[in-house]
Amino acid sequence: MKVKKEEKKIRGSLERSSKIKKRKDKNHIQKVDLKSSKPTFSKLQVLNSLKNEKSENGEKLKRENDKKMFGKSYQKSKFNSEEKTNWPQFKKEKKILKIKRKEGKYKDLSTLIKEVKVIYEKLKCRNTPNKDELSEKLFDLLLKANCMQKFVLAHDTSRIIQCLFRYAPQKIRNIICSELLPITVSMMQSRYAHFCITTMLKYASEDAISQLIESLYGSVIKLCSHNIAGKIMDTIYFEKASKNQKICLRQEFYSDLLVKMKDLNVQKLNDAYNIVQNSKEFILENVKNKLTHLVNKNAMDNSLVHEILLEYIEECREGKSKENCDEFIKICIPVIPHLVTTKNGAKSAIYIFWYSPTKERRAILKILKDHLLKICTHEHGHQLILAIVNGLDDTKAVKKLIIDPLMESFHEILTNQYGRKVLHWLISPADKEIFHPNFINFLDNGLIYSKKDKKMRRNEIFEQIEQLILEKIKENPRICISNSSIGLLVSAFLKEISGDKSREIFQLISMEISSPTWKVENCVEELAIEDTGMHHVLKKILKQDITRKEKGEATLAEELLKNLSDNTIGLWIAKNRGCFVLILLFEALDKEKQEYFKKNFKLHTNTLEKSPHTGAKILLQKIKS
Predict the structure, then answer these.
(1) H or E segment at 129?
(2) Are residues 612 and 489 in the same domain?
(3) What angle do CA 372, 373, 375 make, to 5 degrees?
(4) pLDDT band at 78, cuts 50/70/90?
(5) I need a labelling partner for 436 at 20 to 30 A (CA). Which of 78, 312, 422, 610 fits?
(6) For the whole model, what pTM was predicted?
(7) pLDDT tens across 419-467, in order?
(8) If we measure between CA atoms, which residue out of 6, 4, 7 comes closest to residue 42?
(9) CB atoms < 10 A from the CB of 531, how many?
(10) Which candidate, 247, 233, 245, places its Cα nearest to that of 185?
(11) Is the pLDDT of residue 73 over 50?
(12) 493 & 515 share domain
C-alpha cells in the first residue's frame, strides 16, 4: 500500500513538470496516449526516481547523525563549496574524528593502549636502563587484559609486541609464543603481524621455533601462495626447519592424506606411491595442480617449492604423465628467472630448457635477456646459462641474446667468480680444472635434445667470442693479470688463439709483468711474482710457450726477455718463486735467445751464488751451462 501511494505522488509530480517544461529530446522514455491528454510514464522511470529520492533521504540522515555525534565540530562548510574552508580548523576536526573512531573501535582498550605506548616509547630507545623491568611491566599489562592476539594484528600495536619480544627475558618470550601459536597462520598473512613472526624466528628458543613450524601444518600451500607469507616460509624451510619438519612440509604437496596424517617414511615424491597401490598418476596430477596454482599466483621464488618442482619434473617424464609434464613446462617458462635463485630451482630450470621445443627455447632466451647479468653472476643461476650455451643449436641466437649483452658488462662479469665460469665455458668448455666432472656429465646429458655436433657448436661459439675478448683485453691489459683467478681465464684464452692475435696480447701483458711495481689486487706489500696463484698462472703460460715454440708461433717468454730490466731481474732473483719463473722462461726460449739470456744474467751471478734458495742454484746452473 505504501509503495502504491509513493508511486501516485511521483506520477503527479511528473505530470506537473511535463506541463511546464516540454522535453526536446526525441529519445525520452515518456509515453503519450492519443485518447487522453494526460501523459503516462514507464515503470523504469518511476523506479529510478524512487531510488534518487531514497539516496537523498539517506544523505540527510547521515548528516543529522554526524551532527548529533560530533556537535559543533561538524561544519556544513565541508559540503558547501561556496563557503571558504578554514584548513587549520579542518585538520583539527579530522584529528578529533580519528581519535573518536579509534575509541569507538577499541572501547575497552583505549586507556590500556595509551599506557602501553608510553612504556613502549621508553623500551625501544637504546640508552634506556632496566629494560628487563620495563618489559615485565609491559607484559603484565598485556597478559591481564588478554589482548595480545588483538594487538599483534593491529597496525599500531603490533610494533609494541615486536619490541617486547626483542627485549624481554626468555621466560616471557616462551609465554608470548604460546599465546600467539593459535593465530600464527593469520599472523603470517597479516601486513603488520608478519614482522612479529620474523622476530620470533630470530630471538625465540629452538623449542618455541619448532612449535611455531608445527602450527603451520595443514596450511603450507596456502602460505606458500601468499605474497607476504611465502617469503617467511622460504626462510623457515631453508634455515630453521629440522630434517623431519622439512619432510612434513613437503608431504602436503604430495597428497591430501599426508596433510593430516604425517609419515616420516615418505621422504620423497616416489615414496608417496607406496602408501596406496596404483596411485602414481593421481599423486602426480595432484602435485601438478598445486604447482600450477603457485605459478598462477607468481609465488615460485621459494626453496620449498623449487624442491617439489624438481621432484615432479624428474618423476613425470615416464608413462602417461609425460603429456601433463609438457603442458606444465609451457606454464613454467615465464617463471624461469624466479627459479634460478636456488640449487634445485636452477636444476629444474635446466630441465625445462631441455624439454622445451625450439620455439619455446628462443622464448626462454628473450625472457632471460632482461635478467642476464644477475643470472650470470649468481651462485646457481650461471649453471642455466652454461646449459643453454652447451645445448642450443642456434649459435647466432646465443651470440645475439647472451654473448653481446655479456660483453657490454664485461668488467662486472670478469671480476665475479660465477661470471668468470660463464666466460671460461665460452672459451674452453668442459675444462676439468675449472668444472667438476659430475657437472660436465650432467650438462652433456642435455645434448640428447640437440641435433648439431658438439665440437662444431663449440667452435662456432668461440669464433663469435674470440675477437670481442681480444678487444676487451687490449682496452685494459692490467686487469688480465690483476689476480690469479682472472689470470687462469686469460691463460685458457691464450691456449686457444694463435698467430698475430696472440703476439699483440703477449706484448701488452709482458709490459705489465716486467714492471717492478707489478702487484696483485688486495696485496700491496707483496710482489705479484711471490703470490702463489699468480706464480701458478705464469708457470702455466710459460709451459704453453714450449708447444707454441714448436709450432713457430709467438711466445710470452720472448716478449718478457725484451722488456725485463735490471731492476726487475734483481727483484725476481731475490725470491725463490721468481727464480723458478726465470728457469721456465729460459726453457721456453730457442737456442739463440737462450744465449742472449745467459749474457744478460752474468752480471747477477754473484747475487745468485750468495742466495740460499734452491731456485737460485738451478738458475745458476742454467746460466753456466
Answers:
(1) none
(2) yes
(3) 65
(4) very low
(5) 312
(6) 0.79
(7) 999 999 999 999 999 999 999 999 999 999 988 999 999 999 999 999 9
(8) 7
(9) 20
(10) 233
(11) no
(12) yes
